[in-house]
């Protein structure tokens, strides 16, 4: 193995070997001075920077004739590379002394000669380093001196310009500017501030700041002022009113800043005032218009909800009472007298309502249309709300004269009363609205208190109403069938199709829960068409399942028809289309209508029923005996079946039967048979009842005695059992 001296003592390795030794020398040099060098280079990058300097030192070591100037340039290059720490020079000289000859020496020179040259190179490097460092220091000092002189000149010019600008700004500013000492004495004001206070400078200059206190000042305003003059705050900004010389109020956006001297000691306070009086008046006007009804001048929905939410957020023990008023029959007044008269009526009603709510904590608002609300707060709001509602109804009782006519105004009021904090404003208003409609449906011109159970029922009805269309699309409806039994032989004669709703939350719902809602929304037409299609399809399936040549007649299907469907122009066409598509004979279908749907029916209404009857479809008059119709009217109705209401046969469930009920049923059956009408009895629950009805001549019956409504397969099984 070669020693470092052996490796350095020969150039036998060639140029590549020399470059390798230079690289190792640069690595040692970099490790020595990199920690004390102020450079942004990484250590490998710094090492690459030192490699050319190492090459210059190596070449100077062997140059003939010997010239140490290269080492002087290397010293200057170190300063240029920011190696200006004193340790950088001493470490560099140590590296050159220990490793330059070792790695860069040549075997062609004596060791003493190489060491002598290395020493002279060190001296030259140190001299170049010192000279470059001195020149850099002088250059930096000169630059600093020039910069200081320039900065002083600029500062003087800037100070003059600043003072000029400040004076121009102070005098010509569009906002008021004032300067006061820390005791509050006003020392200087500009013309704008003087004009803001009425134009008399002596009424402004010389006054004390605390003389401008105003009753509407917030306590925080003067607290911040005290903190500022004590030096604890640099500035603050508030909206503050001032009294002018003539006693009027000046509203401002006020910004006060603390001015300190060169040592940071508080010296003056600077006030900037922006006149916001007109803007404030405009905002108040806009606020009034945004929170009050344009027609009546009463608070509107926005302001009412603000007050209601404030009442509901009151502390423990607080209560509220809300009266929700809707005028009865207001639409008829609008339609007959015109909207102009209706508006005058609303203005008069608003005036009367406002005269009713004058006690502290009471307010009246108009929500829109003919809907008004009255709010009361206090400790006994149940009594107060009741008295307020009574005063409102009494105030409305006096006639209102419009266009020479005396109009009697009536109203329905829903009252919600209770402790604050238990319900949201939306929940309170919804409950009041529901309660108001309950009062209206009870006859109107009255008030009702809210009932949580009634609210829940109304909310459920609303939920069912909104869910109806999607339920039909999702296929949530299904049909159960209750058998119709022939009383003569006890066989299943047919079935009544009864629609059910499989609701995702409420379970299975009967028709009494959703048919009125479907009638109200108009959905009864598509729902009724679907029931007809499904029932007819099922009847056709029963016909196909019947034994060929069997003695039992085909099962008939009864489908209920609502009054809305009866008025629909497509009733006949839809029925014909369903029958033709299914292949069911028209005689196997019976459409049931309630007696009340045909009371006072004219020929236009009866025409579609006559058309269906002429096709062979049976028409049944359901709930017969409850519509108070003229019995003689039966002769002109195209009906073939009377369905006797269960109320006539309940007295026949026990033996002996109620003689009055028996006589009534006997008379109805006799009348029906004389008109060639079949009689069906519903609600049969006992064998005794069924036997008596058979004796009286009733044709068919249905009820729990025979079977409850169920799936179609069960009815088919019952009909097969009868056939056997």
From TrEMBL:
Pfam families: EAL, GGDEF, PAS_4. CDD domains: EAL, GGDEF, PAS. It comes from the Bacteria. Residues 318-452 form the GGDEF domain. Residues 162-232 form the PAS domain. Residues 236-288 form the PAC domain. Residues 461-723 form the EAL domain. This is GGDEF domain-containing protein. It comes from Streptomyces tirandamycinicus. The lineage of its organism: Bacteria, Bacillati, Actinomycetota, Actinomycetes, Kitasatosporales.
């Amino acid at each position: 193995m070669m020693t470092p001296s052996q490796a350095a003592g020969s150039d036998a390795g060639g140029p590549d070997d020399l470059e390798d030794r230079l690289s190792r020398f640069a690595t040692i040099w970099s490790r020595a001075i990199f920690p004390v060098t102020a450079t942004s280079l990484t250590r490998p990058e710094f090492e690459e920077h030192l490699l050319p300097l190492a090459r210059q030192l190596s070449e100077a070591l062997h140059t003939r004739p010997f010239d140490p100037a290269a080492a002087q340039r290397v010293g200057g290059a170190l300063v240029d590379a920011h190696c200006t720490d004193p340790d950088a020079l001493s470490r560099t000289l140590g590296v050159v002394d220990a490793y330059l000859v070792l790695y860069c020496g040549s075997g062609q020179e004596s060791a003493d000669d190489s060491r002598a040259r290395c020493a002279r190179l060190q001296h030259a490097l140190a001299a170049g380093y010192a000279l470059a460092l001195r020149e850099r220091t002088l250059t930096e000092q000169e630059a600093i001196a020039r910069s200081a002189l320039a900065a002083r000149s600029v500062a003087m010019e800037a100070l003059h310009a600043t003072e000029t600008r400040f004076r121009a700004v102070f005098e010509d500013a569009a906002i008021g500017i004032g300067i006061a000492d820390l005791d509050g004495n006003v020392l200087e004001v500009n013309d704008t501030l003087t004009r803001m206070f009425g134009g008399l400078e002596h009424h402004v200059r010389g006054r004390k700041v605390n003389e401008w206190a105003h009753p509407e000042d917030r306590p925080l305003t003067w607290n911040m002022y005290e903190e500022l003059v004590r030096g604890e705050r640099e500035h603050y900004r508030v909206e503050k009113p001032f009294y002018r010389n003539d006693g009027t109020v000046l509203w401002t956006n006020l910004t006060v800043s603390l001015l300190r001297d060169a040592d940071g000691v508080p010296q003056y306070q600077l006030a900037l005032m922006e006149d916001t009086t007109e803007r404030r008046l405009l905002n108040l006007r806009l606020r009034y218009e945004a929170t009050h009804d344009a027609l009546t001048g009463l608070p509107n929905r926005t302001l009412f909800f603000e007050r209601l939410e404030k009442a509901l957020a009151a502390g423990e023990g607080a209560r509220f009472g809300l009266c929700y008023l809707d005028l009865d029959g207001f639409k008829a007044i609008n339609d007959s007298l015109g909207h102009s008269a209706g508006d005058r009526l609303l203005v008069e009603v608003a005036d009367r309502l406002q005269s009713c709510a004058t006690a502290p904590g009471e307010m009246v608002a108009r929500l829109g249309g003919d809907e008004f609300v009255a709010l009361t707060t206090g400790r006994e709001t149940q009594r107060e709300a009741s008295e307020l509602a009574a005063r409102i109804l009494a105030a409305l009782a006096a006639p209102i004269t419009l266009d020479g006519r005396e109009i009697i105004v009536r109203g329905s009021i829903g009252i919600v009363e209770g402790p604050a904090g238990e319900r949201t404003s939306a929940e309170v208003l919804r409950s009041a609205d529901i309660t108001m409609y309950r009062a209206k449906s009870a006859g109107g011109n009255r008030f009702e208190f809210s009932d949580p159970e009634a609210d829940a029922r109304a909310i459920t009805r609303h939920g069912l109403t909104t869910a109806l269309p999607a339920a039909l699309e999702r296929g949530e409806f299904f049909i159960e069938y209750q058998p119709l039994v022939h009383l003569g032989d006890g066989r299943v004669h047919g079935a009544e199709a009864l629609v059910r709703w499989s609701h995702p939350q409420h379970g299975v719902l009967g028709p009494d829960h959703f048919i009125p809602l479907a009638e109200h929304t108009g959905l009864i037409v598509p729902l009724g068409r679907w029931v007809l299609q499904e029932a007819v399809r099922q009847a056709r399936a029963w016909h196909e399942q019947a034994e060929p040549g069997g003695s039992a007649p085909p099962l008939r299907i009864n489908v209920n028809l609502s009054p809305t469907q009866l008025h629909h122009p497509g009733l006949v066409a839809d029925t014909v289309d369903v029958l033709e598509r299914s292949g069911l004979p028209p005689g196997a279908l019976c459409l049931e209508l309630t007696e009340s749907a045909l009371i006072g029916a004219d020929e236009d209404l009866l025409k579609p029923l006559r058309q269906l009857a002429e096709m062979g479809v049976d028409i049944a008059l359901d709930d017969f005996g409850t519509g108070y119709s003229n019995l003689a009217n039966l002769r002109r109705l195209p009906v073939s079946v009377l369905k006797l209401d269960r109320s006539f046969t309940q007295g026949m469930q026990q033996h002996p039967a109620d003689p009055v009920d028996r006589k009534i049923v006997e008379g109805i059956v006799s009348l029906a048979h004389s008109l060639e009408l079949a009689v069906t009895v519903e609600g049969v629950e006992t064998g005794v009842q069924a036997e008596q009805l058979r004796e009286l001549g009733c044709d068919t019956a249905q009820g729990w005695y025979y079977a409850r409504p169920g799936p179609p397969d069960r009815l088919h099984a019952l009909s097969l059992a009868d056939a056997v």
